[in-house]
């Protein structure tokens, strides 16, 4: 399998005045097409920063990020924006919907940004509202929807541009347990039916349980990693082959970690800002 996301020796440090806040310290990560991968780790371990850099929302201090073999850190701002629009969908903890638009218009808006006509965009929005099972709520504005419904709109919006990758930052954090579970089930089903790759940051045990791969961060580094065969989603029309393997099989892989350590040992170049 080929990696569609590849980061190498990724470093990021935020500065508040003269105070450094190290966020990422040499991240080597490969994500393959169709994965339902979860970034776990305590608050402050670097999960959001990593997602934002992979999603071309933020820059890094050093290292490389290739998404579909294109080094996004070297792109111009305009190119990054277009790349994001065409290849990556985002789901945020706080939903980030436009308050004055209806659910349907929120979804249609991103399609219009892609250059589609208003009419076509609204058609697409209807389709995705159906997919996330809230077609009847399309006319409502975000503040007339529950948290779970808003997050469904956010997922529909993320999928409406037909991205190959969805990056979701703590998508269940503001939801009650059952609504969170429904949402995970929805994302898992979309992952398996459409083959969309999901990279999700989360503390939520239910999200971790659903992961096909769990990547644990601590202090800006990958400290552990598991590939797991998740429980089957509740309804799948065409599952991707990896999910058809026997349940319960759990293969612990430490390759990334090993390679990461080896690479760091081989290359003494260290960013003194991070030490
Ligand atoms: P997580 O998503 O795991 O909670 P973050 O990526 O948000 O972690 O943060 C990683 C580290 O970077 C933390 O120490 C955090 O305080 C710091 N950080 C993140 N964003 C900023 C920012 N805009 N300014 C200063 N420090 C930041």
Largest sheet: 7 strands, mixed
Helix and strand composition category: alpha/beta
N-to-C order of helices and strands: EEEHEEHEHHHEHEHEEEH
CATH architecture level-2 label: 3-Layer(aba) Sandwich
- Kindly state the number of beta strands: 11
Distance between the termini: 35 Å
Task: Give your account of this protein's structure.
With 275 residues, the protein is of the alpha/beta class. It has 8 helices and 11 strands. It has a single domain, classed as Rossmann fold (3-Layer(aba) Sandwich). 34% of the residues lie in helices and 26% in strands. The chain has a 7-stranded mixed sheet with strand order 6-7-8-3-9-10-11, with helices on both faces. Helix 5 (147-160) runs parallel beside helix 6 (177-194). The site of adenosine-5'-diphosphate has 13 residues, from strand 1, strand 2 and helix 1.
What order do the helices and strands come in, and which of them pair?
Layout lengths: L2 E14 L2 E14 L3 E5 L6 H8 L7 E6 L2 E2 L5 H11 E4 L11 H11 L4 H14 L15 H14 L4 E5 L7 H18 L2 E5 L3 H6 L2 E6 L2 E8 L21 E3 L2 H12 L9
Parallel strand pairs: 3-8, 3-9, 6-7, 7-8
Antiparallel strand pairs: 1-2, 1-4, 4-5, 9-10, 10-11
Bound molecules: adenosine-5'-diphosphate.
């Amino acid at each position: 399998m080929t990696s569609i996301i590849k980061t190498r020796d990724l470093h990021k440090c935020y500065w508040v005045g003269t105070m450094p806040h190290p966020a990422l310290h040499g991240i080597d990560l490969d994500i393959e097409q169709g994965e339902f991968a979860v970034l776990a780790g305590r608050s402050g371990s670097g999960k959001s920063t990593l997602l934002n850099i992979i999603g071309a929302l933020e820059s890094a201090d050093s290292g490389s990020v290739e998404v579909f073999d294109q080094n996004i850190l070297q792109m111009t701002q305009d190119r990054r924006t277009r790349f994001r629009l065409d290849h990556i969908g985002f789901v945020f903890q706080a939903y980030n919907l436009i308050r004055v638009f209806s659910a349907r218009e929120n979804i249609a808006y991103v399609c219009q940004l892609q250059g589609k006509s208003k009419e076509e965009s609204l058609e697409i929005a209807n389709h995705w509202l159906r997919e996330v099972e809230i077609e009847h709520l399309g006319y409502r504005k975000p503040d007339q929807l529950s948290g779970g419904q808003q997050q469904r709109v956010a997922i529909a919006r993320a999928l409406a541009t037909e991205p190959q990758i969805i990056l979701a930052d703590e998508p269940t954090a503001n939801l009650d347990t059952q609504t969170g579970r429904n949402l995970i089930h929805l994302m898992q089903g979309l992952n398996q039916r459409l083959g969309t790759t999901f990279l999700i940051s989360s503390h939520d045990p239910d999200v971790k349980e659903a992961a096909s791969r769990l990547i644990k961060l601590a202090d800006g580094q990958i400290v552990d990693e598991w590939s797991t065969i998740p429980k089957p989603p509740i309804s799948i029309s065409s599952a991707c082959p990896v999910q058809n393997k026997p349940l319960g099989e759990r293969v612990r892989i430490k390759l990334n970690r090993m390679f990461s350590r080896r690479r760091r040992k081989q290359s003494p170049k260290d960013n003194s800002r991070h030490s």
